[in-house]
Amino acid sequence: MFERVAERAPSPPPRPSDTTDPARVFAALDADPTNINVTQESLPRALQLIRLLAAEASKRGHRVGVNTKTKHPRAYLQIGQARRAVTLTEEYDRSSTCPPPRNCGIYVVARG
């Protein structure tokens, strides 16, 4: 009379070379921030920007992940099927009145 309902198989674990679990993303970037091209003094701010980007992406149904298959972990933003690398670099303006790092900015660049 009653049919047995098949249980769902658990979803496969994320590939070890690619993760979007926020804790693992930030752990990988904290451990090896080589691909975040900023000074040591600006690194906490850069990591915070990636955390804020991940939170905003999640609110909009997108995600920030990290590819650990590369020599150094590289963050990416995924929107649907499109995946773009997240690159943070620090640029300095040459100024004789204001020495770095006061005249620097951190820029987020998405490349397709």
From TrEMBL:
Residues 1-22 are annotated as: Disordered. This is Resolvase/invertase-type recombinase catalytic domain-containing protein.
